[in-house]
Amino acid sequence: MSGMPLLDAADKAAGRAKYLTDFHLPGMCHGVLVRSPHAHALLEGLDPALALAMPGVLAVLGPDDCPPHDLPGEAFYGRNLMTRPLLWREPAWLGCPVAVVLAETADQARAAVAKVQVRYQVLPHVLDLEDALAKGAVAAHLGRSNLALPFGAITYESGDLKGVFSSAPHTIETTYHTSTVQAAAMEPYACLVEPGADGGLIVHKGTPAPYELRHQMAHWLGLRPEQVRVVVPAQIGGGFGSRMDDLEYVAALACRKLQRPVRLELERSEGLVAGRVRHGARIRVRSAMDDDGNLLAREIEADYNAGAHLDLGPYVVLRALRPLALYRCQAVRFSGRLVTTNAPVASATRGFGNPQATFAVESHNDELCRRFGLDPIEWRRRHLLRSGDKNLSVGVVDTQTGQFVAKGATISSCALDRCLDVVQGALSEPVGAPLEGWIRGKGMAVAMHTTGKGRNEISNAKVVLRADGGVEVHSGAPDQGGTGVATSLAMIAGEVLGLPPQQIRVVLADTAAELADSGAHASGRTYIAGETVRQAAEKAKQLRADGAPLPIDAHVAWSPQTNAPPFAACAAVVDVDPQTGQSRVVRLLQAIDIGRVLNPLMAKGQIQGAAAQGLGFALMERLDFTAHGKLLTRGLLDYGVPRTLDLPDLEVVFCGEPEPSVPLGVKGAGEIGLMAVAPAIANAIADATGARVRRLPMDGETVWRALNS
Amino acid sequence: MRWSAEVDGRLVECDVPGNASLAEALRGGAENTAVKVACGEGICGACSCLVAGERVHGCIYPAFRAYGQVIQTAASFADGPVARALVEAGGVQCGFCTPGMVVAVHSLSTDVPATEAGIRHALAGNLCRCTGYAGLVAGAVAGLQRLRAGEP
Amino acid sequence: MPSQAANYYRPQTPEMAVELLANLQGAAVIGGATLALGKLGGGRPSHLIDLCDAGLDRIGWRGHHLSIGATTTMRDLRRHPELSAPGLAAIMAMAGHFEPLPVAAQATLGGNLCTGVGSLVAPLLLYEAHAVLLGPDGERHAPIAPLRLHPGEIILSVELEPGSPMARSGCQSLRRTPVGPALVTLAALVDGDQLRLAVSGIEAPARRLRDLEGRWDRRSVAQWAESIAHVVRPIDDARGSADYRRAMVGVLAERLLKELLPTELREVH
Ligand SMILES: Cc1cc2nc3c(=O)[nH]c(=O)nc-3n(C[C@H](O)[C@H](O)[C@H](O)COP(=O)(O)OP(=O)(O)OC[C@H]3O[C@@H](n4cnc5c(N)ncnc54)[C@H](O)[C@@H]3O)c2cc1C
Ligand code: FES
Ligand code: FES
After folding, report:
1. Of C47, C105, C179, the CB nearest to B43
2. Who contacts A262 (Cβ-Cβ below 8 Å, separation ≥6)?
3. Residues in chain A with pLDDT < 50?
4. How many domains, in total, are found in chain C?
5. CB neighbours of A173 closer than 8 A, spacing ≥ 6?
6. What is the pTM of this model?
7. ipTM
8. What is the phi/psi pair of residue A427, to 5°?
9. C72 lies in some domain
10. Do the Cβ atoms of B15 and C4 come within 8 Å?
C-alpha cells in the first residue's frame, strides 16, 4: 500500500506533539462543572458559599450568570430549532451542567464542586424512546411534547406509494432498534479560552466548525464576530463529531468574568454522559414487492432519540434518508421524527444519522432476500443506484411543513457494481471451521454516504509563495484529529507546485486568518478544502508563470455544486456461540468507492477506523442506565471500545474511479467505512443461526433472545 | 512531597502530592507530554510508561512507588525503530494512543512472538479509537522485529 | 506546585500500617492502587499507605491452610508453584483474566476482595477461604463474602483449604463487554465424588451453593446444570437480565462440569 503517513505522525509517536490537554497558559485557571445527579429535576436553590470558601476557588457561576437568551445553535434551513440553555434551571439529563466552579487548579475546582449546595426538586424522567412516545408519557421537559419538531416530522414522498402498496402481491415490514453510543475519542473533552484583544476572546477548541462557532459565540455574548477568535489546535485526540459539546461557552463566560485564561477538561466518566452521543433509534422499514422479489415501493419511519435537547438532531434524522435513496423503485415515503428524552444529548457522531438507518434497511433487505430465496448480491445489483441516477437524499426542508424537497441531484460516479464483485469474491472463498460448538455465517451489506453537508458549504484557501522560496498553504478547514487534512492539503498543493508535501507549511483553522470554512463535517474536507487549495495552488503557479514578483499570495473561495456520494460494500464472516449468544467477527472486508484515492495509506486507515467503530456499534457499545436514570456504565472499561483482540484484520479494497465533479477526483473517506458494518454482521449472524437480530448492540443477551424467541 | 526519578535519562526533581499517580507526576511535575491520560481508569494504556523496565499504566500507578526509579516514556524511544514502523504502517492518526503503544511494544519480553497474533494479545491493554488497529498491529510487528534485529 | 505535607507512606510491617491508618485522617491502605488511584475507584484517599513493603506478599502453609498474602498480585498468583495444583485451577483461571493487561502485575488479592465484586471471590469460596485481618484490636478471621472490615483494619492474608491432591477445579465467567464486569461467574470443585459450587456476579454477595452440593448423584451433567441454574437468584439490570443470567449459569455449569468430572461420573446415565 503506497501513500504517506501524516506529516505530524513522528511527532505524535515521540510524544512531542501538543494537544489541548497539554497547553498551559500563564495565569490559567480551571473550571469544573456542577452536574445534575438526576435525569430530570428543577433547580430550587444553588448556594455557592461553602464552595467559595474552599482553597483556590475563584468563582461559582450558575444559570443567573449566563446571558438571558439561550445558546443559538445552528439554524435548521433558516429556522432556529436548536437553541438550548448553557447552565440549566431544569436539568434534563444525568450530568446536565447547572453551574461551574472556577479555581486555581483543577483539583481544587473538583474538590469544591462537591461543596456547592444545590437543591433539586426531582421530576419524573424518561430515557427510552418508546417510553417517551407512549400515551401519557412523562414529559422530558416540563410542559413540552416529547415530539420535538414543531412540524411533527420531516417527510418526503414520491410516486404513488399507497397505490403501489395496495396492489403489490407482497409486503414486508420490519422494525429495528439501535442504542445510544459514545464516540469515545481518546483525548478528553477540553477547551481553553483566554482574553483576546479588543475586549474579545481567543477560544482554543477542537471544534469541527471554527467559523460557525465564532458566529454563534459572538451572537450569544453580544460581541462582534471579529472579537471572537477561534483557534483549532493542530492536534486533536480524535473528534468523530462529538466535540461540539458547548464546553467552550462555559469557559468563555468564565473568562469574561475573571479576565484570565480558563481551561475545562472533562474526566472520562463525565465525558460518557456529557459528550455528544449517537442517537438511539427505532426504524420501521416496509417494502412492496412483486412475485419475483423486485422492489416496487418502500417506506421508512425513523424515530431518533435526541436526548435532552435537539442539538443538530434535525439534520441528523434527515440523513436516515440515505439508505432509502440508495435503491431504485417506483414510490418512496420517508418520515423522520425526533423524540426528546432525559438521555444524554445526541448529535453529530461519525456517520451522522446514517449508520442507524443503514443498519435497518440493509438488514431488512437481507430478510427480504431470504424470504424470496434471492441472492442478496444479485438482488442488490438489480436495484442499486448507478451513475447518472437521481440522488433523492440531497435537498432542503420546508421548516413550516417539515416537507423535504429533493433538489434533483445526480450521482456523478458510482462503483458499487465493482464493490459487489469484490464482496462476492470474498464471500465465495472457503471460510474454514469455527471453534467447537460455535457456528459460522457470512453476510454482506452496502451503503451510500455523502461528501460534504450538501448545503452552505464553502472553503477559503491561500497559497503563499514566500520571497525566501518557502511555500505556505492556509486554509480555514480544521483537522479533526488524525483525519489528515493538513497532510492532504500539502499533498494537493505539492502535486500542483511540483514539491514534496514535507516542504509545504500548512496552517489551518484560525479565524483570525478570515478564511471562512463551513467545517469538518460530513467527510467533506478533502473534497471541498482540497479542491479549494488545488485551485489556489494553480492560481499561484499561474501568477508565478506570468512573472509576478514574490511573495505571491493566491486566495480562492470555492463552494461545491454537488455532494459526490461515496459507496461501500461490506462482507463479514462471523462466529456465533449459540448457547451464550456471543459472537466474533473473523473476517471483515470492505470494498470502497471514494473516487480517486489521494493517500492510500491514510484513506485505508480512515476506513479501518470507521469499521472498528462500526463493529463496536454492532456488537458491544451501549450506555447502560438503571431504572432510576443513573449510569451503570462506569467508564471505558465497561463501555466496550473494541480492543485489538476484538477485531479481525480489517481488509479494504478501493474500487472507485476519479470522481468527475472535481478535478481532484476525490470523494469523502471519513465516514463511509462505518455504515455497512453492523448490517453485514447482523446478516452473517442470521446466516449462521437462522435468527434475525433487529436490535443493536448484538451482544450475547440480544442474540440469545433472538435465538430463543 | 519532593519527588525524584530518572525520567527518559534525565534526573527529575519536583513537588508532587503523595497521593498522585505516576502519570500526574510526569505530566504535571515533569512536564512530560509523552504520557497521555485518556481514561484515568487503567484501561486504555495511553499513559503507559516503563518503571525499571516493567510496563505500567501511569494513571493508576502510585508516583511514589516509582520514586528514585528509572522511568521511560515514549520520549525515550522517540524516532526509534518501533516509532518509525508505527508511522510507516499508517498506525498513527490522532496520535493520542501512539506514545503508549510505542512504550508497550518496547516493554515486550522475548517470549512475545513478533507476529500478528502475538501483538494483538500483547497490546490488548492499549485502546485506539482511530485506526481499527490494522496499521498499528502491522507497525508493531515490524517495529518489534527491527528492535530485535538491533536496529537503532 | 507548592510543597505538600507528607501523604505517602510505605510501612515495613502490617502493624505500622495499622498504626498509620489509625492516626491519619482520610488515609487508606493500597495494595495495587488500581482502584484507589484510578477513576473507577470511589474517590482518591488523601493519604496513601502503600502495603508493598509490608511483607504481605507471601504464599505458604499455615497448618493445613494455604495462606496467600494480601498484596499478592494476579501475576504472582499465576506464577507461584504452590498454586499450580489442578485443585486450585479455579483461582488461576480468574487471575488469568487480568492478563495480558499490565494491571495483572499490580492488582492484588486484598484489593480484589475489598471491591465486593472481585472476580476472585467465587473461586476462593470453594476452599472455605477466610480473611485474616489485623486491626487496632489485634488479629481476627472473617468471611470473605461479604467481607466486612472494621474501621482501621487491614487484610493480612487469605487462608484456604485446597482439598485433596485429587481435587480438580475450574471457574468460568461471562461478560457483556470484553473487560466489563462479569454477568455470571461460576466456580466448581470436584474432589472424589464431592462437588462444591460458588457463584458471583449473578447474586450479591457471592455465595456457595451449599444446598446443592454434596455427593455427585446419578443425574446427568445437563440435569445438574439445570438444578444449578434453578437455585441461583439472579439480579436484573441493564447489563444483563435475570433470565439471561440464569440461563448462562446453566450453560457455564454444563461446560465446567464436563471439563471437571472424571469420565465415569460424567457418563453416568
Ligand atoms: C483494566 C482493569 C481491569 C480490571 N479487571 C478486573 C477483573 O477482571 N476482575 C476484578 O475483580 N477486578 C478487576 N479490576 C478491578 C481491580 O483492579 C481489581 O479488583 C484489583 O484486584 C483491586 O486490587 P488493588 O490492589 O489494585 O486495589 P487497591 O486500589 O489498592 O485498593 C482497592 C480498595 O481496597 C482497599 N485495600 C486494598 N488492599 C487492602 C488490604 N490489604 N487491606 C485492607 N484494604 C485494602 C483499599 O483501601 C481500597 O479501598 C480491573 C481494573 C482495571 C483497571
Ligand atoms: S489513561 Fe491510564 S490507562 Fe487510560
Ligand atoms: S490514533 Fe487516535 S486513538 Fe489511536
Report:
1. C179
2. A28, A29, A30, A31, A102, A192, A193, A194, A251, A254, A255
3. none
4. 2
5. A284, A285, A286, A287
6. 0.97
7. 0.98
8. -75, -15
9. no
10. yes
